[in-house]
Design brief:
- This is Cytochrome P450.
- GO terms for molecular function: heme binding; iron ion binding; monooxygenase activity; oxidoreductase activity, acting on paired donors, with incorporation or reduction of molecular oxygen.
- The chain has one domain (about 135-515): Cytochrome p450 (Orthogonal Bundle).
- Helix content is about 50%, strand content about 10%.
- It has helices spanning about 30-35, 40-60, 80, 85-95, 115-120, 135-140, 150-160, 165-190, 200-215, 220-240, 250-280, 285-295, 310-340, 340-355, 365-370, 370-385, 420, 465-480; strands at about 10, 25, 100-105, 105-110, 125-130, 195-200, 395, 400, 405, 410-415, 485-490, 510-515.
- The protein has a five-stranded mixed sheet. A three-stranded antiparallel sheet has the order 6-12-11.
Length: about 525
């Protein structure tokens, strides 16, 4: 069969008629005519073919899901991801329980409903958490947080002893001591300058020193805690969803790696010192001590050969999991109480009742258990403004998430927690701060625990959730009896963009003063 290789100024599709009159004829763009016959012509043709293929693959993966019919070539929704807003995400979530987007040819399925969110979180055979591209460079690829399946379950089981009630009881005294020191420092600063001050960085410092004190006790010097706190912000910035992924000098990832090296140096030293202290018959005074005593106990049958480096990596993963989320929860707790003086009044009345007016008496886990209204305040604050709105997962294989849709293998699938936590049927007036909804055991909030996804669900549910909520409650309890604070409302005070949930920045300005009634 003869093939006509003549490239004329038009392209045609032969018909079945005898005279071969073209059914379609369209001109080749002039810029292609200038390069025809050249390697540039071939290159342009290949690029156009790849762009067409990109659209075809996107539409094939998307199928009937809501989302843009076509994706912006190459970058997709990249510009939106650079400045994400709650309005944008709410629009995406409202488009359907499952919806699709693409960013740099990464196909992403967004899951907005409680049912789909829980299914993703509880389907380890189909999906696993996938942090940002730079996460393994920063946290180290051998870190336990990247384990999956049975190995993850077994490793996590060995860490559960660090968050038992007995262990948490040890941590209370450390938390209260550090909290009181920082609150006194806040008040001293306010005395010098009574103007409203942003509390994000000072709250993060409080949270960091508390975490390191709980994790390492006296096995880490105070100046080391200050150094880790100072450098940790580089890690926070490098773990943003969209970032330059290469660790070149001057980049966020490079700075984060240097910060990680500093943190691991001190955490390894703490692990080494703790092993020595426990070997010499010391009593547990921090998480490391409790860990070492547990694995050396006569009834312990799990793994015991943890190097200083591995223990340091575990503690570093706890810092990663807690620093941003707990700081956010603490900051919004302060803001909610300032915005609702009637609720603050109830918190203080409960403090007076439980502590019988003796605010110098050390707090204990048993006393914190009696602060039921304060616990409701913390739980409600975390519901109204959840520190984590969504968690990226990766489909490790084709994931039949619904009867009529299968998430393609290697796609991202992202469960959202916000709509579950703002479900009007479960939480009437969902945007309002109403701690009382948690006081009635028969309330819709308490009878639908599957909606409360603040700490996730399934095998990767937050291992330290009791510790996290207790720490926020302890700080708010101490602050409520020591000082007054007013919220200086700014346009950034409330949930206007998605970054604000984790990084309130200058949005939360508080005017502090000592509470003379205490």
């Amino acid at each position: 069969m003869a093939v006509n290789m003549d490239r004329s100024a038009s392209a045609s599709i032969p018909s079945s008629t005898a005279d071969n009159v073209p059914l379609y004829s369209f001109p080749i763009p002039s810029f292609l005519g200038l390069v025809k016959g050249s390697s540039l012509y071939t290159t342009v043709a290949i690029v156009l073919s790849l762009l067409v293929l990109e659209q075809a693959v996107y539409r094939y993966k998307k199928r009937h899901l809501p989302g843009a019919s076509w994706t912006i070539p190459i970058i997709g929704k990249f510009t939106d991801s650079m400045s994400p807003s709650m309005e944008g995400y709410k629009k995406q979530w409202a488009s359907g329980a499952l919806s699709a987007i693409s960013v740099f040819n990464i196909f992403i399925v967004m899951a907005s409903s409680k049912e789909y969110a829980r299914k993703i979180l509880n389907s380890p055979t189909y999906a696993e958490p996938c942090l940002v591209h730079s996460a393994k460079q920063i946290l180290l690829p051998e870190n336990w947080v990247f384990l999956t399946g049975k190995s993850h379950v077994e490793y996590r089981r060995g860490l559960n002893a660090l968050f038992t009630r007995k262990a948490i009881g040890i941590y209370v005294a450390i938390q209260e001591s550090i909290c009181n020191k920082h609150l006194e420092r806040w008040l001293a600063t306010a005395k010098k300058d009574p103007a409203s001050q942003p509390i994000m960085m000072i709250a993060r410092h409080l949270n960091m020193e508390t975490s390191l004190g709980v994790f390492c006790g006296n096995h880490i010097p105070e100046h080391a805690a200050d150094e880790i706190n100072e450098k940790y912000w580089a890690i926070t910035q490098a773990l943003e969803l969209v970032n330059f992924p290469l660790a070149l000098p001057g980049t966020k990832v490079y700075k984060a790696i240097q910060a990680r090296k500093v943190a691991l140096h001190w955490l390894e030293l703490a692990a080494h010192n703790s092993k020595i202290a426990m070997a010499n018959g010391g009593q547990p005074e921090c998480m490391l001590d409790e860990w070492i005593q547990t694995i050396n106990g006569p009834g312990y049958k799990g793994r015991k050969d943890f190097s200083d480096h591995e223990m340091a990596m575990v503690l570093f993963s706890f810092l990663f999991a807690s620093q941003d989320a707990m700081s956010s929860g603490l900051i919004y707790g302060f803001q909610h109480l300032a915005d609702h003086p009637e609720i603050m009044k109830k918190v203080r009345e409960e403090q007076d009742h439980v502590r019988q007016g003796n605010f110098s008496k050390p707090l204990t886990l048993e006393l914190l258990d009696q602060m039921t209204y304060l616990q409701a305040v913390v739980k409600e604050s975390l519901r109204v403004v959840p520190p984590v709105l969504m968690v990226p997962y990766k489909a490790t294989r084709a994931f039949p998430i619904s009867d009529d849709y299968t998430v393609p293998a290697n796609s991202m699938v992202i469960p959202s927690f916000f709509l579950s936590l703002h479900d009007e049927e479960v939480y009437p007036s969902p945007d309002k701060f109403i701690p009382e909804r948690w006081l009635d055991p028969e309330s819709s909030a308490n009878t639908n625990p599957q909606n409360y996804l603040v700490f996730g669900s399934g095998p990767h549910r937050c291992i330290g959730l009791e510790y996290a909520t207790m720490n926020i409650a302890l700080v708010l309890a101490a602050a409520a009896v020591k000082m007054n604070w007013e919220h200086d409302v700014t346009p950034q005070s409330y949930l206007s963009d998605i970054i604000a949930t984790v990084f309130p920045k200058d949005g939360c300005l508080l005017k502090l003063s000592p509470r003379t009634e205490a």
